[in-house]
Specification:
CATH topology of the largest domain: Trna Endonuclease, Chain: A, domain 1
Strand order of the largest sheet: 10-11-12-13-14-15
Number of helices: 4
CATH architecture of the largest domain: 3-Layer(aba) Sandwich
Number of domains: 2
Radius of gyration: 18 Å
Largest sheet: 6 strands, mixed
Shape: globular
Helix content: 10-25%
Distance between the termini: 35 Å
Structural class: alpha+beta
């Protein structure tokens, strides 16, 4: 496994990043990361489906070929980038094996631009996202891991758009394929103000630039969810929350 960082440049804002692909254990136990295509330009994700978000990865130790989440990077400008992966040829011989989907709980999260664990917390165990409901569940698990108490789903989702509530907490999860809007961030903040709660926003497709700027002004933590179910902080308020906990 090559754990070296790969230099990437965001095509939206031209910021440079060093991306380290997350490594998950193969069924044989060997740490395995998708083979990033060096020199290739990442592409912004403007449309997301559940069927095109897996890549084929082959373990060099056992030859097993499996499906893994497509590597993604959340840029600080709010764009979510698809990181190109080298094609993998089918394994041959006795080492060939069937496909296997990664399961939540197999591995701790890793990789560049990932949240930093607070010293007192165990590693976050993500939930692989396949549906919109999975996205809400993954965000709820993460908020509980951060230290928020009694985090519950709103059933059915109310007109306010508040998907999760906890002690002194309101959170919204946007599972759509479009970046979260300025209105969504402002409405969440206003709802938190009226209930004297903290607000947190999660999105699968990132944030519109004006939404990101307003969140910075209001101190609303913004997270991008990748399909492994591991939230990535995209602003200072989110990074502070990850560092300090609830």
């Amino acid at each position: 496994m090559n754990s070296d960082g790969v230099p990437l440049r965001c095509p939206a804002c031209r910021r440079d990043h060093v991306y380290v692909p997350p490594a998950y254990p193969c069924a044989c136990g060997t740490p395995l990361a998708p083979p990033i295509q060096r020199g290739a330009t990442p592409s912004p994700i403007t449309h997301r489906t559940w069927t095109d978000t897996w890549v084929t990865v082959r373990c060099r130790a056992c030859g097993r070929q499996s499906q893994w989440p497509q590597p993604e990077l959340g840029c600080s400008c709010g764009a979510v980038l698809r990181v190109p992966v080298r094609p993998v040829t089918a394994p041959t011989g006795a080492k060939a094996a069937g496909h296997r989907q990664p399961r939540a709980g197999d591995r701790p999260p890793g990789g560049g631009d990932r949240p930093t664990e607070a010293p007192a917390r165990a590693a976050f165990r993500p939930l692989t996202i396949r549906t919109a409901r999975d996205a809400v569940t993954a965000a709820g698990l993460y908020l509980t891991w951060l230290g928020f108490g009694d985090v519950l789903h709103a059933e059915p989702p109310p007109a306010s758009g508040i998907d999760l509530r906890g002690r002194d907490l309101v959170a919204q999860v946007d599972p759509t394929t479009r970046p979260a809007s300025l209105k969504a961030v402002e409405c969440l903040w206003l709802h938190a103000m009226t209930t004297s709660a903290r607000s947190v926003h999660f999105s699968l497709a990132g944030y519109a630039p004006d939404a990101r700027r307003r969140a910075d002004e209001l101190g609303v933590p913004l997270f991008v969810l990748d399909l492994t179910g591991t939230p990535q902080p995209v602003n200072g308020a989110a990074r502070k929350l990850v560092s300090a906990g609830a």
